[in-house]
TrEMBL record, chains A, B:
<keyword id="KW-0028">Amino-acid biosynthesis</keyword>
<feature type="binding site">
    <location>
        <position position="100"/>
    </location>
    <ligand>
        <name>substrate</name>
    </ligand>
</feature>
<comment type="pathway">
    <text>Amino-acid biosynthesis; L-leucine biosynthesis; L-leucine from 3-methyl-2-oxobutanoate: step 3/4.</text>
</comment>
<feature type="binding site">
    <location>
        <position position="90"/>
    </location>
    <ligand>
        <name>substrate</name>
    </ligand>
</feature>
<feature type="site" description="Important for catalysis">
    <location>
        <position position="190"/>
    </location>
</feature>
<keyword id="KW-0460">Magnesium</keyword>
<feature type="binding site">
    <location>
        <position position="250"/>
    </location>
    <ligand>
        <name>Mg(2+)</name>
    </ligand>
</feature>
<protein>
    <recommendedName>
        <fullName>3-isopropylmalate dehydrogenase</fullName>
        <ecNumber>1.1.1.85</ecNumber>
    </recommendedName>
</protein>
<keyword id="KW-0464">Manganese</keyword>
<feature type="binding site">
    <location>
        <position position="246"/>
    </location>
    <ligand>
        <name>Mg(2+)</name>
    </ligand>
</feature>
<comment type="function">
    <text>Catalyzes the oxidation of 3-carboxy-2-hydroxy-4-methylpentanoate (3-isopropylmalate) to 3-carboxy-4-methyl-2-oxopentanoate. The product decarboxylates to 4-methyl-2 oxopentanoate.</text>
</comment>
<keyword id="KW-0479">Metal-binding</keyword>
<feature type="binding site">
    <location>
        <position position="222"/>
    </location>
    <ligand>
        <name>substrate</name>
    </ligand>
</feature>
<feature type="binding site">
    <location>
        <position position="222"/>
    </location>
    <ligand>
        <name>Mg(2+)</name>
    </ligand>
</feature>
<keyword id="KW-0520">NAD</keyword>
<keyword id="KW-0100">Branched-chain amino acid biosynthesis</keyword>
<feature type="domain" description="Isopropylmalate dehydrogenase-like">
    <location>
        <begin position="2"/>
        <end position="351"/>
    </location>
</feature>
Length: 356, 356
């Protein structure tokens, strides 16, 4: 079980350290190797995804990823900016299947900006396609506008594209995830406007024939954004493209008010995966020892479940996290009067203790 | 003051009737002419945007639009479906500037799914570009995938495009709107991934030089979706492209919990405009006399303000709407115990009475 550890920038190193501590007490034999990525990759080797880091990630069975981005890299040209590392890893490792749970632990219902009755007990899984769509579609660039009323001016352009096989494989991931949960899948598209998503809808409908036990419905992306705010608990699994998934998964995560709790998995065709917290690198609190490590620890649990098929160990970690919450321990981001505020390291230690 | 009245489908005719009643008691001389659009256009003339309807809209100074869409048109081929009428009108009339306020009236704070302290007094204006972007960009379609690992398969594709002049003109609309409000503008993009939106960001930054009194910031669309849920009152004016604007404006509208109250304007370069409620045609409640006409009545107020420069009359209508809310009158969608439930017609009559 070879794991590439990529801490990245900002709070990345602090939160990754807690997840590593948790992995080390499970009694399994992991082979862990660390490499710099994002701004740290640029600082060390002049590129956000240095060759050595990419090679390590390719050779590993799984990647545990912290977060990337920090102020001092904001003015670099786009190709060198930290977030290119994550786009590069997804594409180079073929990590097309992004699983982003949005779960609201009952103890944290107060953290949400939504009324408790609307969100408490929320448990949605967003399945986002991660290597296609307008994120990677060619051609793209800035050119002279070739036609229409603005002909001759400069224009920026990109290409949205989804091939049949790309849609089929993410649809299979989503239907199978739904089978293991509430057996309801909502495919989010914009078929009333986009050719790509009319095609998406047709293919998802076709794949549905292989999953008669799952109830499928289709929803336009603008309506999905509304329904997430109006009645998020009505969703079970949502599947959508890369761009819509980027927006909706962040919206869903924020509904919980506790994005510091949310893990994610990005999987290839053989369940090799990259695991990372859903939150960012939070450079404003980096080094202060106050970041919430639970999303990263829960990402390690997803890794055990999806890549290493160690469901029991994954359950152990998830139970330990629930128990520290039940004990009333909270990092600053989820603190409420009446609970006990702890730092990053104390929280990690509490999970380790709960595992014992 | 020639106004084309396009009631459309579902609750469209009922709510438009109330807005027309309001216009008729203002003491102005409007020339109103009605034509079918959407499903009603298809039923009458075989097309959602019949030639006569388009000609009427072109000849008018403003269009007052109800809503389109009903179950029986769902299975038509895409080109004949009701929503094509609205896309056609936007494009044919050059209505590139969409103004969508998300306002939460203090009396209705309880209707939101968000906690009152997060949303009460919310007053955001979303400025959405409406005739460009991936909505209309060519080429688009379904073809044989020309390259990459899925070469030879079918693929759906669309083109995102924004020319410099297109971005400049919507930026001017947004900066000018911000000048009349809180003087803060957030431009929403995805410059970290899309060429189109790096270009968008550059042009908006350039236009900003002409509006030194407005504070401009830039935000990624995924973060904007999060911030709308987390702290929506931090926004003043948001400007974005057609696709992102579709998603974010619906999300913002739903934050209020009272989308039945929200008007919208879609303007061309000389302030000719199409005015419509932000909600849809709600075929499930059509004909029952229970739909909320206030968004349509407030759309008529926007028409007086933006197309006809009749600010005083617009103010009168807005004040009348506030007064019926203060009287405790509510249609079913915004009803709460302790208020008085009224139907569509009663609500329209109450506004007329408040105007007197
Ligand atoms: C950093 C950025 C390129 C990335 C994305 O848009 O996919 C991020 O927002 C995410 O969701 O992981
Ligand atoms: C009906 C549809 C084509 C339209 C859009 O996507 O623009 C609608 O959602 C809107 O926002 O007015």
């Amino acid at each position: 079980m070879k794991i590439a550890i990529l801490p990245g920038d900002g709070i990345g190193p602090e939160i990754i350290a807690q997840a590593v501590k948790v992995l080390n007490v499970l009694g399994e034999s992991f082979e862990l190797e660390t490499a710099p990525v994002g701004g740290a990759g640029y600082a060390a080797h002049g590129h956000p995804l240095p060759d050595g880091t990419l090679a390590l990630a390719k050779a590993a069975d799984a990647v545990l990823f912290g977060a990337v981005g920090d102020y001092q890299y904001d003015t670099l040209e786009r190709a060198l900016r930290p977030e290119q590392a994550i786009l590069g890893l997804r594409k180079q490792l073929g990590l097309f299947g992004n699983l982003r749970p949005a779960i609201l632990y009952p103890e944290l219902a107060g953290a949400s900006t939504l009324k408790p009755e609307v969100v408490s007990g929320l448990d949605i899984l967003i399945v986002r396609e991660l290597t296609g769509d307008i994120y990677f579609g060619q051609p793209r660039g800035v050119r002279e506008c070739p036609d229409g009323p603005f002909k001759g001016q400069r224009e920026g352009y990109d290409t949205m594209r989804y091939a049949e096989g790309e849609i089929r494989r993410i649809a299979h991931v989503a239907f199978q995830a739904a089978q293991k949960r509430g057996k309801r899948l909502t495919s989010v598209d914009k078929a009333n406007v986009l050719e790509t998503f009319q095609f998406w809808k047709d293919i998802v409908t076709d794949v549905h024939k292989e999953y008669p036990d799952v109830a499928l419905d289709h929803m336009y992306v603008d309506n999905a954004a509304m329904q997430l705010v109006r009645a998020p608990k009505k969703f079970d699994v949502i599947v959508t493209g890369n761009m819509f998934g980027d927006i909706l998964s962040d919206c869903a995560a924020m509904l919980t008010g506790s994005i510091g709790m949310l893990p994610s998995a990005s999987l290839d065709a053989s369940n090799k995966g990259l695991y990372e917290p859903s939150h960012g690198s939070a450079p404003d609190i980096a080094g202060k020892g106050i970041a919430n490590p639970l999303a990263t620890i829960l990402s390690a649990a997803m890794m055990l479940r999806y890549t290493f098929n160690k469901n029991e160990q994954a359950d152990r970690i998830e139970t330990a996290v629930k128990s520290v919450l039940a004990q009333g321990l909270r990092t600053a981001d989820i603190f409420e009067p009446g609970t006990t505020k702890v730092g990053t390291e104390e929280m990690g230690n509490a999970v380790v203790k709960a595992l014992a």
